Amino acid sequence: MDSLTHIAVGACLGEAIAGKQLGRKAMLWGALAHSLPDIDFIAGFWMDTAEEMLAHRGFTHSFFFVFLFSPLLALVAQKLPGPQLSFKRWTALWAVGMLLHLALDVCNNYGTGLLEPFSHQRFSLHLLYVADPLFSLAPFIAALLLLRRSVPAVRRRLWATAFACSAVYLGLAAYSKQQVASTVRSSLQRQGISQQRMFISPSPLNTLLWYAVAGNDSGYHVAFHSVLDADSSSIAWQYFPANRHWLDSMADHEDLQHLIRFSQGFYTVEKWNDSLVFNDLRFGQMLGWHQPRGRFVFHYYLQHPTENEVIVQRGRFKGWNKEVVLALLRRMAGQR
């Protein structure tokens, strides 16, 4: 999830675990504990772009990291001046904060290395876009109110309501995805589209409009479908050939191996002018609900690696304007 969501959720969690003992400082500790796994961004200063992508949400997002560092951080916290917690409660604050961070990140499509360093498998539930205002709204409002309210009973209701609202929203997202997945599978079967692998992920900032990808090593079909679409039998699939044979001459390149591993098999290759471009399909299309043949958000220039800064983010909102936003809202509402 985005950093602001982690801070707001962490602040509410800190209040829930240690607010009685630490007062408002518990919110700061909770936000720190919940945000700590993202310390892996520091490693990016010494890594090339392709390697950095695998480092992010890797070891610091693993169960082993939480198990190893929660008691160590509890020992450090106990040495600091001011109001204190027991070692057990400090450990719980760090451990629950980091575990909740891992749980939220697994809901996104990036892939989280829960089992590092013992397994490089990445886990993704594809339930939430990396920034979802409706999911984040309740914790954010609760965190702001917790800064102003001092009555213990009111404070308890604030963080409890925030977590309840987010949990309900997450449950609705899971239900929506299940409904869309059923429709997508029926559409693929009805249209005779074969596939070896498939995923369904929310489109930007919502859980009404979903982005579906289905295919194999030859190519992938891509489509958008809203839970409010009146005609569920007319999903318009767009086909993108994989063109993986274009990579034969550079199959041993380390950057390419990192990209293939990172993409979990969902990738295509295109030629843009003089460069081969590696597309990771998991991050969606630029304006795909508005431009069905739109380019993919995540694209990596294989022959020009110096142009690949912040490659995951650079295409997320490129080309957005009033018309694009209105088109997104219409498709969310089931209008084509």
Keywords, please?
single chain, 336 residues, alpha+beta, 2 domains, 4-stranded antiparallel β-sheet, 9 helices, 7 strands
Please tell me about this protein's structure.
The structure is a single chain. The chain has 336 residues and is of the alpha+beta class. It folds into two domains: 170 residues, no CATH class; 138 residues, no CATH class. The two termini are 29 Å apart. Helix content is 44%, strand content 15%.
Structural class: alpha+beta
Approximate helicity band: 40-55%
Number of domains: 2
Estimate the strand proportion.
Answer: 5-15%
Task: Give me the strand/helix succession.
Answer: HHHHHHHEEEEHEEEH
Number of DSSP helices? Answer: 9
Q: Would you tell me the overall average pLDDT?
A: 91
Low-confidence stretches: none
Q: Rough shape?
A: globular
Spatial strand arrangement across the major sheet: 1-2-3-4
Q: How many β-strand runs?
A: 7
How far apart, in Å, are the first and last alpha carbons? Answer: 29 Å
Radius of gyration: 22 Å
Summarize, please.
By secondary structure, the protein is an alpha+beta fold.
Could you outline the blueprint of secondary structure elements for this entry?
Elements: H1 3-22, H2 25-35, H3 49-55, H4 63-78, H5 87-106, H6 133-146, H7 152-190, E1 197-202, E2 209-216, E3 219-226, E4 238-241, H8 254-263, E5 267-272, E6 275-285, E7 296-301, H9 322-332
Antiparallel strand pairs: 1-2, 2-3, 3-4, 5-6, 6-7
Helix pairs in contact: 1-2, 1-5, 1-6, 1-7, 2-5, 3-8, 4-5, 6-7
